Amino acid sequence: MDRSRPPRPEAPAPSAAGPIARGAGPLPHFFGSKIPRGGRSEGAAGAEPPGGRIAAGDPKPLLTLDTLSVAIEGQTLLHGVSLRLQPGETLALTGESGSGKSLTALAVMGLLPRAATISGTLTFDDTDLDRIAPRRRDLLRGAQMAMVFQEPMTALNPLMTIGAQIAEVFSIHRRPAPDLRALLDRVGLDVPPTRYPHELSGGQRQRVVIAIAIALRPKLLIADEPTTALDVTTQAQILSLLRDLTREDGMALLMITHDLAVVAQMAQRIAVLKDGRLVECAATAEVLSTPRHPYTRELVAASGHRARLPTASVGEVLLRARDVSVAYPGRRRHLLERPLPFTAVQGVSFDLRRGERLGLVGESGCGKSTLTRTLLGLEPRATGRITLDGQAVDPHRPDSAVQRRIQVVFQDPYGSFDPRHRVARLLAEPYHLLGHAPPPGAIDRALAEVGLSPRDARRHIHAFSGGQRQRLAIARALIIRPEVIVLDEAVSALDVRVRAQILDLLAQLSQRHRLTWIFISHDLSVVRQVTDRVLVMCQGKIVEDAPTETLFAAPRHPYTRALLEAAPKLPDNTATAGPRRAPPA
Q1: Contact present, 520 and 368 (Cβ < 8 Å)
Q2: What is the pLDDT of residue 25?
Q3: Pairing of strands 391-392, 383-388
Q4: What confidence tier does 333 reach under pLDDT thresholds 50, 70, 90?
């Protein structure tokens, strides 16, 4: 409801509300976008919604959504969602991008834009959230309910110390000044409160956001993809922290995630959203082992999907790295102190053979990205030598003949394309390394090879979905037939069904063209599907180099074992299927 209007009097039945109160801060990117209509209808009138009705003997829920609908600028994005969350319970809200997960959370928090209209009822701790004054809603937010967002760097103020940002919560709610050290200790963060966000790692920043959220010990915590951008060990630590906090404080946790392996170890119940509709809600074990709705079955199957990678036909050494080290200037602690260099990559040596699919894994900050840029000739190295089929890779003397033989597929397909140009021009970009325009039909063939239409050549990049953009990125990388492809977190930003499709596409292209690639990822389950051999990096060094199945079955290095143990896994009885390897062609 509009902030300028007084609260409505109590009524026996809720009616459609006007524009809901807007919270501070930037609006999420999906406002104004359209979620496709369709999907499963909610059934006949009077039918029980997937979220269930509250029986007379049930304990009183902390949070109740009763046929909640949200529309923005006339477009209905959330359709009659009914859910309940008990005190101390963890409920996972899952579904693909655009399904309405984050929109549901923002509706609960009162952070929708002014253009939004809602119908249905939102009840929190016996309070009808749509009927209370905006000021009271603001006081509930932070004190009684709080939210942890996916990207901590954008959730934090870069101009304020982390201590000042935690203290701000107490000031807004007129509470006594907190013991900042104790709060940081509670979330496992051993850094002084005088640090700024940019001085912390991604995992540390997420701990700060959690510290702010739980500072006043709220009854409800909403976590929106809190570990999606984190490596497996940091993810495990954050998930463990959330479990401990909910247990210690008796907090209810509404966890939004598309990762069913995370859901399996965190939530008592799962609610599945599709196109803004709740299609299934049941106990976690029940949903994973015997999903009822066709869409849920697709999600579960895609989560356990295994790409049919063809048997490798490995040839001679194609890319060779010998004793490669990369160093950066260190931080100067005092004005007159000489800074010590920081070594990001230390003495790395390995060979990549023609036709081989090599994985590169490790935690954030281990040196993966620096090593990758060095292999591409984009980063000067302190020592060592890199050759591609015998030709030196030298960042000081770029050689287009070398550059055309190695191409990259980046994590963010939208950010790697110029939105001003049409697809035909974007796919033709690698041809400048050859000094001529693409031959007739090259663009059409490249699009067809990744499952797109030649008609797509006339469209702009914003007209495509995330999965389609990644197909275009793969098409651009392959169009000049490079000898090595570097896939840098190429599927980590994709939903599970789209990820499965892209992995299948890579397997098909590998069989068709005998591709050689380096696959960089923090998702070990994906690395296992699409590689023959894996390098494990820790603190700038290669600590293990082994065939993929050997490494996963019998890891030798303690760090590798720690990575594998930290990775979330689906239960053995999950309703998934699919072989890992295709039979030899």
Answers
A1: yes
A2: 35
A3: antiparallel
A4: low
* pLDDT, averaged across the chain: 85
Distance from C-alpha of 278 to C-alpha of 167, rounded to nearest angstrom: 38
**Alpha-carbon distances of 173 from 126, 138, 141, 440, rounded to whole Å:** 21, 9, 10, 66
Q: Give the pLDDT confidence of 379-425 residue by residue, as tens digits.
A: 888 899 999 988 888 887 777 778 789 999 988 777 889 999 999 99
pLDDT confidence bin for 306, thresholds 50/70/90: confident
Per the structure block, which two tokens stand in for 524?
């070990």
Residues 104 and 93 sit within 8 Å (Cβ to Cβ): yes
State the angle between helix axes of 442-449 and 466-478 in degrees (0 to 180), rounded to the nearest 10: 130
Helix then strand count (H, E) for the chain reads 19, 20
Mean pLDDT of 324-335: 78
Q: Where are the domains of the chain?
A: 63-303
pLDDT digits (tens, 9 = 90+) for 167-221: 999 999 989 988 999 999 999 988 999 999 988 888 899 999 999 999 999 999 9
Contact 506, 474 (CB under 8 A): yes
375's CB contacts (< 8 A; 6+ apart) are 319, 321, 386, 393, 406, 486, 518
Q: Domain spanning 63-303 has what CATH number?
A: 3.40.50.300
Measuring CA to CA, how many Å separate 37 from each of 41, 271, 572? 10, 19, 34
How far does CA 231 lie from the centroid of its chain? 10
Name which of 86, 90, 29 is nearest 414 in CA terms.
29
Q: Which residue has the tokens 């980063």?
A: 379
Tokens 């991008």 correspond to: 97
Is pLDDT of 93 > 60?
Answer: yes
User: What are the two backbone dihedrals, phi and then psi, of residue 324, each rounded to the nearest 5 degrees?
Assistant: -80, 125
Is 580 within 8 Å of 529 (Cβ atoms)? yes
**pTM exceeding the 0.85 threshold for the entire prediction:** no
Task: List all residues 6 or more positions away from 510 whose beta carbon is below 8 Å from its beta carbon.
Answer: 309, 310, 357, 517
Instruction: Give the bridge partners for 487, in sequence order.
Output: 409, 519
Instruction: Report how far apart, in Å, the C-alpha atoms of 477 and of each of 90, 183, 253, 489 are.
Output: 43, 47, 42, 15
Q: Are 344 and 302 spatial neighbours (Cβ–Cβ below 8 Å)?
A: no
Measure the CA angle with vertex 465, ends 462 and 466; round to 5°: 100
Beta bridge partners of 321: 350, 386
Q: Of 12-21, 62-71, 361-370, 425-434, which has the strongest mean pLDDT?
A: 62-71
Token pair 């100067």 is at which residue?
A: 332
